[in-house]
Amino acid sequence: MIATSTATALAVDLHRTSNKWVSNLALLAITVGTWLSATVAGGTWMFYERADKTLGLDDVGPGLDAEGLMPQVYLTLAFIACAFVIPPIIGLISQSAVLGAAGRERRLAILRLIGLSSADITRITVLETLYQTVLGLVLGTALSVAAAPAWSFVSFNDDRLGTWEMLLPWWGYPLLWVVVVILSVYSAVNGLMRVAISPLGVSRREIPASVKWWRFAVFAGLGAAFYVYFTRQGLNDLVAGGVGVTGFMFLVFFSIHLVAPWILQTVVRLLRPVPGRAVFIATRRIVADPKQAWRRVMAMAFVSLLFGYVVLMPLTPVNDSFDAQFFADVITGVVITFGIGLLLVLVSTLLTQASVVYEEAELTRALAHMGVPPSLHRRVAWLQTLIPLLIMAVSAFLFGVLIFTAMFIGEADVTPQRIEVFVGGYAAATLAVAGITLAVDPLRRELLGLRVRRND
């Protein structure tokens, strides 16, 4: 086993001499993930402080009126917003680490060939990931602090945010950094475990197993429990439920994460008879690894879930406890959450497209040697992204409608103008995702130009 100082020097040198596409995209993802994590956590902390100042623990009781409960209502909605955006943020940070592992696979195989042990390879991977993650943490934290004053233009409950009100307390940032570091290192090591590198430098990828029907059974059970819970809860009790409601929503989102690969695998199998070489290749790649296909479009799915949830939301008071200002603030929160989600969609798509290029580099080169034109690879990349995106966008939208229907029975309010806005948002997001796939074409051409011989 090599010394730690040697492993550290190798990790830094490998990062410095690695493919700039991989390094820059992974660094961008960690930076954006850290920035958005700090922003979301800071916003939740802001609502907590406002609720703590306005509503002391001694004031909570049966006689508390709706106006006194409003700070707790806003805090509850902040937790619910976290439930919408935290899973895509976690996915983005994980994808950045996996992309780094994919980019360094061949270099690690060479180190294995010259005598390094499997433990040495793992240590180098961890150290290189730590080096990259620390850079992203510094940039992301600085960006969140620099952007904090811009939030002073936003107001909730007719009260503008303070200049630095969106910042976390001093202990919040180290806690956030620890979470991001653990997530990055775990994802990198887990991604490396899927690639078996023998002492002869031969790397072989683990074939993913097919997803099973039990995922849908668990999802159906949790969905039924969710529907019964909210249809039996009164609106005031629902909002006052606080963290309990948010925890249950996290459980529902977990069930979506569980069933989504099964939905993709099942629906895409129905598209196999569709003619066309690009469709043939794309559908088989999706069916072969539906979990990876889901990770590519997870951010868009949760944005669609939010769309489905708010498309029926009334813009006028539906209860004496909630005035017009409250619903205006809800719309403001939806717009902010959608903006965060859309940014996650774009960065995640760029990252996953680059990851796909590396994961399928050998197959792409083999097809190119057989005479397959580069335009086919571009069409396959589009279909491999857009087919799962559209399937999960529609599914998540319908599930969001079901959630709203269960929570606000008989209070739906939909207008043609709102439908036009949401359709336009979907169209813009889809076009943006389609355009992002073109951004990795230079990377694909670069890999196609390489003449690589496998170690066999």
Automatic annotation (TrEMBL):
The keyword Membrane applies. Residues 89-188 form the ABC3 transporter permease C-terminal domain. Its main location: membrane. InterPro entries: ABC3_permease_C. The chain crosses the membrane at residues 25-48, 73-102, 130-151, 171-192, 213-230, 242-264, 293-312, 324-347, 386-409, 421-443. Keywords: Cell membrane, Membrane, Transmembrane, Transmembrane helix. GO terms for cellular component: plasma membrane. It is a multi-pass membrane protein. It is found in: Cell membrane. This is FtsX-like permease family. It comes from Corynebacterium uterequi.
